[in-house]
Amino acid sequence: MTSVYTWVDERLGLEDLMQFASKKQVPLHKHSFWYYWGGISLFCFIVQVFTGILLMVYYRPGPDAFESVRQITYVVHFGWLIRSAHSWSANLMVASVFVHMFSVYFMKAYRKPREFGWWSGMVLLLLLLTFGFSGYLLPMDELSYFATKVGLGIPEAFPGIGPVVANLLRGGMDVGENTVQRFFALHIVVLPVFFIPILVFHLWLVQKHGNASPPSELEKPQSQRRSIPFFPNFLMKDLAMWLIALNVIALFASLFPWDLGTAADSLKPAPAGIHPEWYYMSSFQMLKIMGSVFPGAVGEGIGIIIFTLGLVLWFLIPFYDGKNEGGQRARYATYFGLLAMAVLVITTFWGYWGL
Amino acid sequence: MSTPSNSSQPAKDATENLAENVMSRRGFAQILFTGVGLCYAGVIGYPIYRYLASPIEAEGEAESTAVSQVQLKDADQLSPSTALMFKFGAKPAVLIHHKDGTWSAMEAVCQHLGCTVQYQGDRDIITCACHGGVYDSHTGKNISGPPPRGLVPFTVSVQKGVVVVSKT
After folding, report:
1. Which of A215, A226, A324, B156 sits CB 3.0–4.6 Å from B103 for a disulfide?
2. Which CATH number belongs to the domain containing residue B108 in this structure?
3. Where are the alpha helices (DSSP H) in chain B?
4. What pTM, to 2 d.p., does this model score?
5. Which residues contact A5 (CB under 8 A, 6 or more apart)?
6. Rounded CA gap, B143 and B126, in Å?
7. How far apart are CA A89 and CA A73, in angstroms?
8. Is B155 inside any structural domain?
9. Is the pLDDT assigned to residue A119 strictly greater than 90?
């Protein structure tokens, strides 16, 4: 076996990689638990690619979409399991990405030299939400249809270019066959083509800069800081977390399989209590609030501008809280993060309560 | 568990050495991990295999409740020296009205590699374009080329307004 390794090493320089891997250290402190969540998000993404490819074997976009998903769910052997794994893993990925983002934020891992990691991460988050939105329509049942109709109201409400963008996304004035085809192309080709290179960039940055130590750890003298080797110590723990994630997905998919509603029908009225998936509930509720405070299209426009602004500020946090120290800006940044988290959580629960 | 005296120490070492000779801790861990890994591979692989093989299994079930007879409406009007391609269950088939007034029907699936064959009215034979197989148009027997056996024959019953083709 060692001769095979040597043969490949002489041609690819594996030894350099091994040397690098053996030197890589991961900081060990009371907040080290949060280091796993990026990896868990990555694992969920891998599950999505895998189950997504399997679903593509039987899914038919266009007019036959609902029927093909009905067959996958109720006819094809274990189709229900593949589909449920895909839906659950999507939700778990969004949840773990939020945990990852907030833990990075509060550990201030957006500071120099990790700004690009933060920005690429934010782009990945937006792409992920688009993955979720486009994927949700594909079964073309009542829930998908109305959730998409309502959801497209958000870009539509954008002042000026809104309706043009919304019509392009829909492929018409209403959600229908054309929309499914477009969303399918988006979901399986366009989004992956952007997502994967940015993800690779994001992961390479983690390799280059290593895991960030939180401010409390940085204050300690070097002698008091501990770390463990990435290979094999941290890697084993990382893989154990992946195994747990796999078990959670498998358990949820088996015990709480995803159902299929009735076929989408544009002539039917929107069912009572229609709402988007949980990760859009916050925006949904905030728009509702804005709509009641400032009536009409103005209210929606203001709502969208406010959370776009919030998003931009969030994106630009490395410029505000850039210095590697405590102080006023560092504290204010943490407060802003807590405020953002509180707003998201409260509006999400409020949204459900108001149904 | 404490070892207060030296006398108990050698006994403990002996059993530990014995255990290590049977299997080391590392070896045990390796077997355990490999075993669990294989279980996971099986539990994930089995549903994926059945998922991908689903239509094949469905086709298999369909064969047992397969078509045994096809009624071709107005096919009795078919001109002499011409053929009619039709579906018998899931397979393509051919009905031939010969120049001499007789009728024959058979599966149009070439026995070589499965291409759909065709009737040549001018030469009164059945040929396969893929690799040049030739069949007798009355009996379906393989005359020349690669096919190892003849086309699967059907029984033809010509009635007024309909031709009934059934499995032999």
Report:
1. B156
2. 2.102.10.10
3. 8-22, 25-52, 54-64
4. 0.84
5. A14
6. 10
7. 17
8. yes
9. yes
- B57, B78: one domain: no
Could you give the C-alpha distances from B152 to B85, B137, B143, in angstroms and in order? 15, 12, 14
Q: How many domains does chain B have?
A: 2
* Residue B2 located in a structural domain: no
CB contact under 8 A, B57 and A77: yes
Q: What is the pLDDT of residues A296-355, one digit of tens each?
A: 777 777 878 888 898 999 999 999 998 877 788 899 999 999 999 999 999 999 989 887
Residue A77: closest CA among chain B residues belongs to which residue? Answer: B51
CA distance A79 to chain B (A): 6
Question: Does one domain contain both B50 and B82?
Answer: no
- The pLDDT > 90 percentage for chain A reads 66
Count other Cβ atoms within 10 Å, centred on residue B39: 10
- Here the ipTM equals 0.86
Q: DSSP letter string over A150-217? A: HHTHHHHTSTTTHHHHHHHHHTSSSSSHHHHHHHHHIIIIIHHHHHHHHHHHHHHHHHHH-PPPPHHH
Distance CA A128, CA A148 (A): 16
CB pairs under 8 A between A and B: 28
